[in-house]
Amino acid sequence: MSETHSSPWRVIALVTLLLLLIGCGSAEQAVTTVPTATTALDAPPEPTDEPIVEPTETAADGAFPVTIDHKFGSTTIPAAPSRVVSIGYTDQDPLIALGVTPVAVRYWFGPTDSGVFPWAQAAFTGEEPAVMNMPFGELNYELILSYNPDLIIGVSSGITAEEYESLAQIAPTVAQSGDYENYGMPWQEALRLIATSVGKSAEAETLISDVDSIFANAIAEHPEFAGQDIVVAAGRADGGSYAFFSAQDSRTRFFTNLGFNAPADLDELTGDSFYTEISEERVELLDRDFIVFSQASYLPEGADTILNDPLLSQLDVIQQGRFVILDEGLDAAFSFGSVLSLPYAVEQLVPQMASALGSELADGDDDMLAAETRTFVDAMARTVEIPVDPQRVVVLSEIDLDSLLALGIVPVGAPNGRGQTTLPSYLIEQIDGQTTSLGALGEPNLEMVASLAPDLIVYSDPYGALAEMIPEMEQIAPVVIPYVYTDSWDWKVVFAAIADAVDKSADADAFLAAYDAQAAELGAQLPDELREVSIVRWMADGPRILLSNAFSSQVLADVGFERPAAQLDLAGSHPVHTDVINMEQIQVVDAPVVFAGGLNPEGDEVMQEALENPLVQTFESVQNGRLFTVDGLAWSSTGGPLAALDVLADVATFLQTVAE
């Protein structure tokens, strides 16, 4: 059975406490009404009774006891701590960077079973910490006590004086400095404070120097950032107001560390808070040299909520394209603002900002353009001038995204997976947070495309309304159509055409040669009695049998599989799969081997229910343990070389299973 790939960002849309929500209480009072971009969770998850885990050793290079000054006084830590509990929303990152693995961390957003985010994985060692699920503004003292801590870190927690006193009864507790508003402590100072608490001050200075160098290099490479007035803003789902962040907030500090300027008049409006809201009548206050929108994935229509806002769209900064709308993964790293997430955010965000502000190529330097392009005649007989080495490619179909990733090109923009609300889940690892979602497949927002400042747009098989948009797309960047589908569609032919369009045919040939060799090797292991196979894709309305022209059917044919004769006349209204099969027809799904997958979570749920049906339990494949569930998106998308490798990997797992 194959392992289904899942996106670390798939649950980030659940961040009802996130971003402009995280610091809405003062140091001396409990949390007041939280201004949210969407309605807060009506019933926050109840804290779970987590078991006490074994201590994690931390090697201290500082002298103990040590006394830490903070906003509530001072805390003395008598010895090097070995059981650190992190109750701050971002405090686990400094600890992990310092080589200290906390026994428990506080849930903020993302996967509910892990407090180690993608940008922290490389630095993380030891056992995964337990995750304390405590609603915003509430502490479960009994749960914290259950981990038997010898140090509690609450630098990014926003705790009150009363909460501090209660925590201090459990273990020595370190809060943030009193020199800053809640959640406003610079990451360097937060790191130093935490490092001193665990005896790692020397390591902290090295880490700070390394990250400062990354910012310094970005400033040196982009002098155009210097002195530009910037505002970090958020649109609101309920309309009627907008929000922006103060100069003390880590989001704005990110940009001032790159040379941008935080307008003083805006900062006066935030007062002692980390953000403020303005009404529609004052939206012109956001019209500065540059604007960055956080929380877009958090809105009902995502980036479209911002791009289609009638007032925002009238601002010069929007009309002139001097803005960036952060996607989910980048927004998370940017908002975390930690020693580990900041390098990732710089790497991903700085190129987008530079393109939006305008580079020589983006400004239309004709001499440079002429010197760095080649002439290509595409599948629609269009002559296109294509950059020799495109750096910012936008793709508009699944197979374009899959193919370019296989060729070593990570597009800056792509549509969501078929039937999904995120980029294709099976490609998330290869995308690595570098690709912005353009929304639903076949419905790209051209303003979003333009904001990514692409130097090439790739779209295989233009159809319908999207085909009519090609002239508009050409106003943004060169558009190449590598392939137009026919009844004899073959994913390898499409892949080769896409490779030709980006001048990487040799790479595609090498990939296909390796693929053919792998398919042949698997075919040699395939028993004759197991060559007959059925492929089923489940959706919310039921299953569909994928027939011989489907992508995964082509891959299985390369291995040596065949289709049951009873399925050959089932195409119905679809060229590559049947219409929906109801439970009265379900027996036609059976074969000596069945591969089944849901296209999306709803399909997975319906599939699991169907597999428990008594009729399905009578299948030959079920009786013999040869019905295998797979990643339905990878198997039943338009396909591509990386999806083909996923299918072969599942076949290899199947062969290993039947051989045991």
How are the SSEs ordered, and which strands pair?
Elements: E1 66-70, E2 73-77, E3 84-86, H1 92-97, E4 104-106, E5 130-132, H2 141-146, E6 151-154, H3 161-168, E7 173-175, H4 187-197, H5 201-221, E8 230-234, E9 241-245, H6 250-256, H7 264-270, E10 275-279, E11 290-293, H8 303-307, H9 316-319, E12 323-325, H10 328-336, H11 341-357, H12 366-371, E13 373-377, E14 383-387, E15 393-395, H13 398-406, E16 413-414, H14 428-431, E17 436-437, H15 446-451, E18 456-458, H16 464-468, H17 470-474, E19 479-480, H18 491-501, H19 505-524, E20 533-539, E21 542-546, H20 551-559, E22 593-598, H21 601-611, H22 614-617, H23 620-623, E23 627-629, H24 632-636, H25 641-659
Parallel strand pairs: 3-4, 3-6, 4-5, 6-7, 8-11, 11-12, 15-18, 16-17, 18-19, 20-22, 22-23
Antiparallel strand pairs: 1-2, 8-9, 9-10, 13-14, 20-21
Helix pairs in contact: 4-5, 5-11, 10-11, 13-18, 18-19, 19-20, 19-25, 20-25
What are the defining features of this structure?
single chain; 660 residues; alpha/beta; 5-stranded parallel beta sheet; 23 strands; globular
What is this structure, in a nutshell?
This protein has about 650 residues and is an alpha/beta fold. Helices cover about 35% and strands about 15% of the residues.
Describe this structure in words.
- With 660 residues, the chain is of the alpha/beta class.
- Helix content is 33%, strand content 14%.
- The protein has 25 helices and 23 strands.
- A hairpin with a 2-residue loop joins strand 1 (66-70) and strand 2.
- Helix 19 (505-524) crosses helix 20.
- The chain is globular, with a radius of gyration of 27 Å.
- The two termini are 13 Å apart.
